[in-house]
Amino acid sequence: MTPGSLAHVNPGELSSAVIAAVRDAVADGDISVPIPEKAPVEATATGDYATPLPLRLARAAGRSAPEVAAVLAKHLAKRPGVRTARTTGPGFLTITMDTPLTTRIDESYGLMAVPPAERWPTRPLTFDNPGFRVRFAYARACGIRRHAADLGLREAEGPLDDPRERLLIGLLADFPGRAEQAARQDDPRPFTRHLERIADAYHDVHEQCPALPRGDEPIGTRHTARLGLARAVRIVLGNGLRMLGEMPDDRL
Questions:
Q1: Nearest Cα to 41, choosing from 133, 139, 134, 178?
Q2: How confident is the model at residue 13 (pLDDT cuts 50, 70, 90)?
């Protein structure tokens, strides 16, 4: 990975990159503002990231929030791993990374210590039990990997533009942020609820946007892209369960 690259970005790292962009903008004389200690960064529903920092700096800069966002975007876009940085809405700075989120998610994605949580019950084995939904979603994603290997299929970049897929991608993008929130607030509930939302979204995707061809259906780019999405879900839910002290089971 290129030094200083944001290829495996999480909101904390991207916050540091945004602050560096502020520092560069001030050093170049593009704006004059106090350098904040950190920038709030949230994942969006499309897998991009956004910060409202320009709205907070506008008064000190004596300029409109969109103007501040445009200045910061120019500097942030120079960083390795950033595809685009642009102004959106009333003055948000929105960042798109070079590679799709599903490609950026590796086995260490989002791993950190979170406060102990009350363990989900093991029964009933129904969708009324949030623990079952999370564990079953993980097992389903593991099953996709096994069946894809049997068919000789490999994941590849491709379209993931169904609204259900975009919702799931946004939730995966927000996984590190919810872990950081749980640690910061010493409260595991935002984290466990987020795992449940990821699981629910994946069950929907698994049923309605299959990663494996059905019947005589030809293999297409959507299938191979969805294999990458299933891999990302497997990693995120597996990491989440381990962070809560539970060893995930790839078969239920």
A1: 178
A2: confident
CATH class of 11-97: alpha beta
The tokens for 122 are 């093991």
Side-chain-side CA neighbours of residue 40 (13 Å): 11
Q: Give the Cα separation of 181 and 12 in Å (integer).
A: 11
The answer to whether 17 and 6 have CB atoms below 8 angstroms apart is yes
Task: Count Cβ atoms below 10 Å from residue 74 Cβ, excluding itself.
Answer: 15
Q: What is the tens place of the pLDDT at every residue in 125-165?
A: 899 999 999 999 999 999 999 999 999 999 998 889 899 99
- What is the Cα Rg of the chain in Å? 20
- Reply yes or no on whether the pLDDT at 41 is more than 50: yes
Q: What is the pLDDT of residue 138?
A: 98
- Give the DSSP H or E segment for 51: strand 49-51
Distance CA 223, CA 165 (A): 12
pTM of the predicted model as reported, rounded to 2 decimal places: 0.77
The arrangement of secondary structure in 105-243, i.e. its CATH architecture, is Orthogonal Bundle (1.10)
pLDDT of 252? 80
Burial class (CB in 10 A: 0-12, 13-18, 19+), 192: buried
Sheet with 92-97: list strands edge to edge. 42-43, 49-51, 92-97, 82-88
DSSP-derived pairing of the beta strands 92-97 and 49-51:
antiparallel
| For the chain, domain boundaries | 11-97, 105-243
Give the pLDDT score at 11: 67
SS3 55: helix
